[in-house]
Write a structure and sequence with these properties.
With about 140 residues, this protein is mainly β. It has one domain. The strands form two sheets. Strands 2, 3, 4, 5, 6 and 7 form a six-stranded mixed beta sheet that branches. A two-stranded antiparallel ribbon has the order 1-8. A hairpin with a 6-residue loop joins strand 5 and strand 6. The radius of gyration is 19 Å and the shape is elongated.
Length: about 140
């Protein structure tokens, strides 16, 4: 569920609450060679709906990367956690996250949170042979 129906929240008088779901992010978000997502990302956040139908979310994302170490090419895996904070306005021209017809699509905000939390390299650990130089 990557959408929030603001109209439904208003009808149910749920002006604040929390949501949690799994999301399969596109591999194109990863810029580290020979690395992929090891399963879905976990998305968890609290929301607050304001009188003007703007909505703020604050939470976290977590996911696991696996592939080859960026330094020595051994198998490697890493768990990553990041923040998910976004503010949605009921206007399509809103600078950051706008929405129309009472439905918020969270995809852009979640993908941007994943990209912001993405490490630059994947490392097999502190004992990586690619880190030492004996020249």
């Amino acid at each position: 569920m990557m959408r929030i129906d603001v109209r439904k929240l208003n009808v149910q008088k749920k002006y604040s609450g929390s949501m949690e779901f799994d999301y399969s992010p596109p591999e194109s978000l990863i810029e580290i060679p020979f690395v992929k997502f090891a399963g879905p990302a976990k998305v968890s956040f609290e929301y607050e709906l304001f009188e003007d139908d703007s909505l703020e979310i604050r939470g976290s994302i977590s996911y696991r990367l696996e592939g080859q170490c960026s330094r020595c090419l051994k198998d490697a895996a890493q768990s990553v956690e990041g923040e998910l904070n976004a503010y949605f306005e009921p206007r399509p021209d809103f600078e950051d996250y706008g929405y129309t017809n009472g439905v918020i699509d969270l995809t852009k905000a979640v993908n941007e949170a994943i990209m912001a939390s993405m490490p630059f390299v994947l490392s097999c650990g502190e004992d990586c042979e690619g880190l030492s130089y004996n020249g």
